[in-house]
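Batch manifest line 272
LIGAND: iron/sulfur cluster
JOB: complex structure
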Amino acid sequence: MKQYRLSIILLSVFETVAVTLWLTKDNLFYLFNFSYIGLSISLGVFLFIRKYKYARRIVQLLVGLYMLIYLGLICQENMQIEGFWYYLFTGVFEAATIHYAVAKIFGPLIFGRGWCGYACWTAMVLDFLPYKEPKEPRRKLGWIRYITFTLSLVFVAAIFLAKAGNIERIMFCSFVAGNIMYYAISIALAFAFKDNRAFCKYICPITVFLKPMSYLSLIRIKCDKEKCISCGKCKRVCPMNVDVTNNSRKRENGTECILCMECVKNCPKNAL
Ligand code: SF4
Ligand code: SF4
Ligand code: SF4
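JOB STATUS: finished
ARTIFACT:
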């Protein structure tokens, strides 16, 4: 059972959130929602431990499609950052606010950027593209994320200040338009930079929350220096250019780790 400890911890964390929200908000949806996500993620971790090659991809599809199709398109919940601002402005602790609090603000203190590796519906598509290992050096374009972050805030603030009618409809349309735009830009960028995750590295506004919180993450990839032979394979396969052999929290691109486990799978000495 010891080897399945992580799977059990993750399931317990999600079940605690599910039951707490169900009871405090008196809404069965939260029990279903967080139980489903928790079960999907712990199933993925379980399959990974059993060395199933596509474990992470299965979780991405289970969670990503659920959030995009069911929550986003059918339930019409705007789970993008604009939805978060919207609920924050209205003072309602529901849907997108809870989603952000759990997955992107407080959750990363435990599971870092697990969201990016296992649940994001944008990356779910990007990870099917051909450039899984970046083919070019990282560019100094991370500042763009602060612009997109600010634009998303200004967009929602403008809707409120303009006292626009039918805001719910506007938020749904912005969810659809925003996703089409994200997919178009991220796929184009992946091919232009020969890097599937270029959008994550330079443009995604959510990383403004994710990066500082994941700096303190409880779950991290660490290197056993006794076993490591400095072959460099882990860094070559890392989609996020993390200096994973350095155990310091300040390691290069340390807050970019999406816990995809590619480095772990490829290390010839089981040093990670
Ligand atoms: S960085 Fe943004 S687009 Fe990339 S996986 Fe994370 S949340 Fe998704
Ligand atoms: S792949 Fe393993 S052995 Fe090679 S540098 Fe990375 S941690 Fe060390
Ligand atoms: S390859 Fe390793 S260091 Fe790089 S993102 Fe994946 S888990 Fe993190």
